[in-house]
Amino acid sequence: MEDGRRTQSRHRLSSQLPAGRAEKAPGDGGYGGYGGGGGGRRRPHAASSRGLSLLPTRGSSLGRAAPAAYFTLLVSLFLVSGLAISPIAQAQAATSVGIPMLASIGAFAGVTDTAEEFARSLKEETGGKVFISNITYDLARDVVFRAVREGRAIGLGAPGNYANFTGVDPRTIQYLQNDVPFAMSFPQFDAFLRQANFSRYWDQVYKPFGIRPYHAGTVSGAQLGGWFKKPITKLGDFRGLTIRYTGNPITAFQGMILSEVGATPIAVPAPDIKAALANGTLDGVEVLGPVADEAAAYWESGARVLHYPSFQGPESTHFLVPDAVVAMATDKAVRRAAQDAVSLNSAVFYGPRAQAALDRFRGKGVTIRRLPVPVVQGLYRAFKKVEARHRAEVGRSNPLFAQIIDEYNAYLKSTINHSVLSAPEAQQLPARDDIVARFIGVQPTVAQQRAELCRRV
């Protein structure tokens, strides 16, 4: 009976997806603003000499990049024409099959760890029958999606990367990838996907394309509130600032919130952020989290104030696996490989590496400051205002999208009180005076702030 309901709801979702494509994000790497620009950084895996690799490999080192000319040839033969290399469906008789992983995300710390762990585990779980031949990062989203749909690759990216092809609007997709403002925590969303079956919406979105999605963890970990040239001491300080925030500033909630409080959100390509900070085009920027932000060194361009907390969730990603590959590897093997990857992803983004990055920030003269409680409350009120407008709009145009929003918010509300009581800071901060002095000062703890927000909802 449950299977029947799920199948029926999948058809219902497919029928309610808009005929036109969702609006593309601007040229800053698109939705999310982290890669997908088509640079194509390749990391080859060692291919089995007995197997059939669907993309030629060069060398055995996972971290060795192929020369530009070689990669260009691969793209022209494999990704564009599709004629020179046999698709997965024609390779099932081989002793083992190597398939490339194509990512629409850049080769960031944490992302590469996650992709490589999935590759390691998939080969182990299938006994070498299916293996990742190589991994290429920072590819254009249409290239990745087309290759996966045609059964020629496994994809890695966030749901929002492919909203232009699946037809989900750019704000509803934020609930499907947990980067809606004031979102669930990473473990909450993982449980929501797996135990509360929210992942069925992922299944429904990709089923018409012959693709199976599997959770791949987060692209950022706990995000921060942004790098600024001057501290934000009150909500009015946002007025007149020009800020580059992750996500499409025209269509994403984050940009809408900034507009509500008087700031001007703009799209700046990631490689140009430091120059824009230095020449005054930007007053502030938010990209990902401490692990990924460290290499950018925004403090060198005058943004020496790092605020927290973020009003953006820890954006989730997924592996996109063609049905034919799942059939060869089995759903059980792919799911276990994905779970191994999520476990490592969590360790990278929420373990000692993140704290070490924060310590190094301080060593570079960065001031890490909490946003004052009235500022966080003002941002939250702005979010609920724009969210209500969006919910009313999809309620009229696409009831299923409204259902996604309502189900997400209902689960969040059902867990928030326990989250406040069990939050690590609620347990640890009273016993850690050094942390209280460094991060909190005389301000209320995070748990107290969350409890206050709950009372106001």
Report the count of strand segments.
Answer: 13
Structural class computed from helices and strand pairing: alpha/beta
CATH class of one domain: Alpha Beta
Q: Please give the count of helices.
A: 19
Shape, per Cα inertia axes: globular
> In what range is the share of β-strand residues?
5-15%
Mean pLDDT: 78
CATH fold call of one domain = D-Maltodextrin-Binding Protein, domain 2
**Whole-Å distance between the termini?**
36 Å
The CATH superfamily of one domain appears as Bacterial extracellular solute-binding protein, family 7
Low-confidence stretches: 1-33, 44-86, 428-445
Task: Supply Rg.
Answer: 22 Å
Keywords: Membrane, Signal, Transmembrane, Transmembrane helix
Protein name: TRAP transporter substrate-binding protein
Organism: Chara braunii
Task: Write a concise synopsis of the structure shown.
The chain crosses the membrane at residues 68-89. Keywords: Membrane, Signal, Transmembrane, Transmembrane helix. The protein is α/β, with parallel strands linked by helices.
Give structural notes:
This protein has 457 residues and is an alpha/beta fold. It has a domain at 2-221 and 315-352: Bacterial extracellular solute-binding protein, family 7 (D-Maltodextrin-Binding Protein, domain 2, 3-Layer(aba) Sandwich). 46% of the residues lie in helices and 13% in strands. The strands form 2 sheets. Strands 1, 2, 3, 4, 5, 6 and 12 form a 7-stranded mixed sheet that branches. Strands 9-8-10-7-11-13 form a 6-stranded mixed sheet. The longest helix has 25 residues, at 373-397.
